[in-house]
Amino acid sequence: MSVPAEAAPTIAAPPLNEDAVFAPVRSQTAFEETVERLGTAIKLGLLPPGTRLPAERELCRRLGIARSTLRQALLALGQTGHLQAMRGRRGGTFVADPQPPGDPPSEELLAQWPEVCDTRMALEVGVAVLAAQRATPAAIDVLAALVEDMERQVADYASYRHTDVRFHVGLAECTGSSRLIAAMTATQGEMTDLISHISHPEEVLRAANDQHRRLVRALRAHDSARAARIMSEQVEATMHILAGLLPSRG
Amino acid sequence: MSVPAEAAPTIAAPPLNEDAVFAPVRSQTAFEETVERLGTAIKLGLLPPGTRLPAERELCRRLGIARSTLRQALLALGQTGHLQAMRGRRGGTFVADPQPPGDPPSEELLAQWPEVCDTRMALEVGVAVLAAQRATPAAIDVLAALVEDMERQVADYASYRHTDVRFHVGLAECTGSSRLIAAMTATQGEMTDLISHISHPEEVLRAANDQHRRLVRALRAHDSARAARIMSEQVEATMHILAGLLPSRG
DNA sequence: GGCTAAGGCAGGACTTTCAGACCATTTCCC
DNA sequence: GGGAAATGGTCTGAAAGTCCTGCCTTAGCC
């Protein structure tokens, strides 16, 4: 008690930024999380227009929530025009076709754009490394096909972007980690909100798709270092574009 | 209406694994999240024994929760022996000294160990890339000092691991992204739970620290490709060790 | 017509969280 | 010594979210 229990560290340890430990703990409600999850999947095109969702009694079981909670979420997405319900024997809840126009990104998201890009950088590069180690030839073929699809879609940004999302989520699927797939989906959702309202010249899309093509080659060669480099360059390029259009921090 | 609205994609799009979209949505409660956050920070040594937490009325404000909710969490951590409360004017809530022995990893976490490692791989490699681009000389000096500390601690795993955590969290701090710092803290917490109950021969720790040293050199050179490669090798090494000790999937 | 599968709806119980007031203890300062 | 101040400890009632359960309505199929 009278003597310090342990010797002082040889080097003065930095006092540690406690802000990280004591940052606000904001639990989303089940309702909010469900709206977010389904809404993102719809906006990303992972659930294309016309898709029929599982029946409510089935879906609430899979999501692990009560049917009333699920219905709150479905109702909310119905009111925003993303979902449409049909009653009766062959009824169900369908992804609306056409989809409503997207909202401009929220102030909140705009303020966080550097963090979103940083998160994306970490995730995409790491996923590229793992994918290069683990992707099967069949999975790589699928990715290669998506690249060819994108090549034909450079004139139609909405289509291009949907295929682009499939590509990146597909990359995450190559890792076999459900956490990474979920993280990739969430990140792509944030990115879509950020970039969907800016212009996308064909040249830019073509250049990005060239990177995709090179990435696929790196995957085929199981060259994770090259995959990491290509991916970091691509994310970097997006960051530079956004940096020129969006307000910087502060 | 009578004709499919859009031409079929040239390549059959994979049906998309809907499991990712419809996976269970499990919202942690504010209470659970608080216990998790503080407990992890304590177990990782980010809040060393003897540290005084902010007063309850201040802390609940910073965490954005009600005082009663915070007190539930503090009480829980007190009952497990991680915290100790003192009343009176100069009182407060303190990180217990000594800390209670750690519990063995839960069945749940053990079952998820490949996912934890994959998440770590993605995060650490991505963070390494960003850190190599952004780390200031002063920040790198701090990291280098931590490496020297670890070199002296190879015989005492508990100390070594605490410094190791500081190193990796410090790397995340170099990115300037609070999301990445939070993710790194959470991931290191899971890793600690996984690896704390296995043996750590000095040779292994020394080899790992050599990787740290090489990484610091790569940071100094702002060589993100090399940083990524070194980091991926290190995470890979940990995965191989765990693969030999823990049950594989299924 | 009757069965069935789907969405639509309503009520009640349970849990979590919040907000605020007040109590008990210790220390500082006049 | 005595009061002020700062801290943890306790209690209560309200509010919100969630769950469970049952029942209704609609529409297709036999």
What secondary-structure arrangement, pairings included, does this model have?
Two copies of one chain form a homodimer.
Chain A (H helix, E strand, L loop, with lengths): L29 H14 L12 H8 L3 H13 L3 E4 L5 E4 L11 H5 L1 H22 L2 H16 L4 H19 L2 H18 L6 H19 L3 H22 L5
Antiparallel strand pairs in A: 1-2
Helix pairs in contact in A: 1-3, 1-8, 2-3, 5-7, 5-8, 5-9, 5-10, 6-7, 6-9, 7-8, 9-10
Chain B binds a DNA duplex (30 and 30 nucleotides) through helix 3.
Could you list some keywords that capture this structure?
homodimer; 250 residues; mainly alpha; 62% helix; globular; disordered N terminus; DNA-binding
- In DSSP terms (H or I, runs of 4 or more residues), the helix count of chain A works out at 10
Give the mean pLDDT of chain A. 90
Rg of chain A computed from alpha carbons, rounded to a whole number of angstroms: 21 Å
How far is the first residue's CA from the last residue's CA of chain A? Answer: 47 Å
Unreliably modeled segments of chain A: 1-12
Give the beta-strand count of chain A.
2
Q: Characterize the main sheet of chain A.
A: 2 strands, antiparallel
Order of helices and strands of chain A: HHHEEHHHHHHH
Oligomer: homodimer
Shape of chain A: globular
Q: Tell me the fraction of residues in β-strands of chain A, as a range.
A: under 5%
Structural class of chain A: mainly alpha
Q: Biggest chain pair contact, residues each? A: A-B, 72 and 74 residues
